[in-house]
Amino acid sequence: MIKKLSLVSLFTLLPASYYFAQTTVSAYLKDAEGKPIEKAQVDLKGSENDVTADKIGYFQFVDLQPGHYQIVITKPNFETKLMEFDVADEKRKDLGVITLYSALTSADQGLAIIDNDDDDSNSSGQASTVGLLQSSQDIFSRIAAFDLGFYWFRPRGIDGRTGENMLNGVSMLKSDNGNVDFNNWGGLNEITRYPEVSANHSPSEYTFGGNSSVVYKNTKASEYRKGFQFTQSLTNRNYRNRTSLRYSSGMSKKGWAFTVMGARRWAEEGIQEGTFYDAYGAYLGIEKKLSDNHTVTFNFIGAPYRRSTASPSTQEVYDYRGVHYNSYWGYQDGEQRSERVRKGFQPIFQIQDFWKINKKSSLWTSLSYQFGKDKGSRLDWQNVQNPSPTYYRNLPSYYDSLDPNASVINADGSMTTSQDAYRTALAAWQSGDPKVTQLDWDRLYRRNMSQPVGSYYGQTGKRALYYLVNDVSDDRIWNAATHFVHNFTDTTKFLLNVSYQNYYSEQYREVNDLLGADFVLNRDPFAATNQPGKSGLFNDGEGNVTKRVGDKMGYDYIFRRQEVKVNPGLKFSTGKFDVFVSAMAGYSSSNREGLFKHYLYNDSYGKGTDYNYWNFGLKGQIIYKLNGRNFLVYNGAYYNQAPYLEDLFVNPRVNGSVAPGIKSMVVNANDLSYVISTPFLKMRLTGYLIDTSNETTVQRFFADGIPLKSVDADGNQTNVQSAFVSQIMTDVKKRNMGLELGLDVKVLPTLSLQGLASIGQYTYQNDPMTYFASDAVGVFGNGLPYTSMGKSYLKNYRQGGTPQQAFSLGFRYNNPKYWWVGGNWNYFDDNYLDPASLVRTESFVQNDNTGTPYSGLTEGDLRRVLQPNKLPSSFFLNVNAGKSWVIGKYYVLLSATVNNVLDNKRYITGGFEQTRNAKYPSFAQDLDREFTLFAPKYWYTQGRSYFVNLQFRF
Length: 954
Fold this sequence. Notes:
The protein is mainly beta. It contains 13 helices and 52 strands.
């Protein structure tokens, strides 16, 4: 009986088993050109049975029962794909080839890099993060770089100089100031796009880095799409047009691959008045496959450029002329001409060797050489008043500050009262009279050409009162690096990076244009009053003091720096933990060699002392997997960083003195994140705390009106009124802390909502010592080229340079027919100007006559005049849209972005406090005027901007 039941049961169950047959569903993912797409995420809706495509784009789902299914395919930089299919009574179901098309957003279109080219360095060397253009899967980083970075938002308030930007294995940071010059590969967006990014202070496989991200770019010729790609862009930003063409051969049967690209960006006038832009970019990549395990590449990148820059201005000037006003240009013979023109060409040659030693080990070796000149022009003058239209004595506010009945001289030499002069100047500024509001080049020529012929240092001719100079950086930079990887097991990897940089830069000033004169004197025009009895020569003992076009004048010196870094790392997984530990040991040697013998400084000429620094560091990342989609992530870093050359030397143009007590900066950075990553929800919530100490900052600017005293060898004092000065702060301590939230919710397969919140507090944590140096004084009474101003009371002041609160909310709709539209709202608050240290020192309140604080000065008075300079909050709307087509073998993409749709022109992107009145009485008097003479100078947002991009691949 039992046997009969067993047989009945067996034959009864067989049809049911067949009916519920389990099916394997598979497909291949390819791009528009038929190339496999690896590592795409394929999510089965309503199930946790999700997979990732392999190296040939293949994926499969196993054991699917009959029914109706939906899958969502996602891959960074590709459009999200939604597919539906049915499973019937079949063992295998082949979905065939699924094509994913590129989904370029506004950020991928080649966003114009906004940079501050003001040579006075009053902006504290703080740069925009737009240049990162990071292609990260992290939603917070993506929004911060692409949408907020356009408005000069810096994540966590961190200076970009503490990060790392690498191109083909070597660092692109300049050793003089730690910045990256994106002009060196400007316009080559299709070559340098989609880098690998290690965000903030998280460890990287390629270098130790700092605490503002490692951005790694590789340009292998074989990795670009085979064929041609043409791009045409229209915009109203720094440039108006961009045209590029790229061709890639793909890898031939003989193991050769070639990629070549050319680009041009240009504008007769950019969005800022009187600016132009003319830049080219060229790339050549050659790759030779020696064997399946060995490849050698050669890369050449060259990007010559010539463009003019725009000025900062006080609020008084913007009220007269609007936010697009630029004081650096004027008319010459009816044509626009700018005094601030930056041009350069510093090509890069690189060779890389990729060697897969065996199944577990690989070694990449890179060698790079870069050379060339970068020049920035500016107007200079001797023994005459500053010709800038925004010089304080040329503005209506100056005349308003005088006694209404005081006599003043008109521009034509006639006399008038200050009251009448104020009315005349105000009318000219309000009406936009170019003879007043812009540089008058014709007048400068007339003044020079009307000079009497005279004899100067053995030469006869007309001496220039006004002239143009170039500040030149002539660089030669060698880089070598290796990247070794050994996989002990599938879950344990050892990394070793070794790098060497040899930096050589001759920095000097040369005569650009004499504006109708015969020569200019290589002599301090203020020496007669500031340093009576001294030669005043910028280069004592030279045979020719009279300088003509192309001659060096003012200063000439060489920066040298050699640096070696060793960076071992270990990545491993154990249980629910993924761990990455990275260490660093570095040694640097820096020096300055003066080529001019300045009349004030004995250490100005010759090779100076070598300043050597050892640096060490440790980084760690721990990921705890709560489950497959929820994670806790900790990143920690503790390291020190040697000072850059411009922070090490107080005033390298004229002497070899270094900042007092300078040390390596110490960074202690920590963050903890909760991360969710599912097909329909991506989120990162992070808390961070970053402490820096031992930081040294140097600010250099020309000051007219600072009261100084020069003392000669006999003890005689001379009052100094105009000088090139330096402010030095040492042992600066800062704290950056806050919360970050990034959110991406897929409410429909085709519709995503995205948001960001950044709530920070970036403050000074101590009262650093402040020192002061001046070319007008030279050596102070202490025998040093600087003097102590005492403590600068900055503790608890907010750091400047970026909004400390930022919020963004937006959406993106991807239509299955390959078009998209998106938009977002951005809000910024708690943005401050960096506090000027000099007016917050003990010296500011000290009466020089009594040596005690000014009589009657109260704490309330000080708080009123020295309160933090907070900038207005603002919000912006951005929109973007695009459509792509595949026509046979051709691919066409049209996309457009409009930033600041509502044309908000009230947002201040940056600026600096002017340090002209260094004593309380004069500072308070100026502050209380209706129009402050030495008010802060700002850069404003440019208003509504657009970027339209057409791409054609064939």
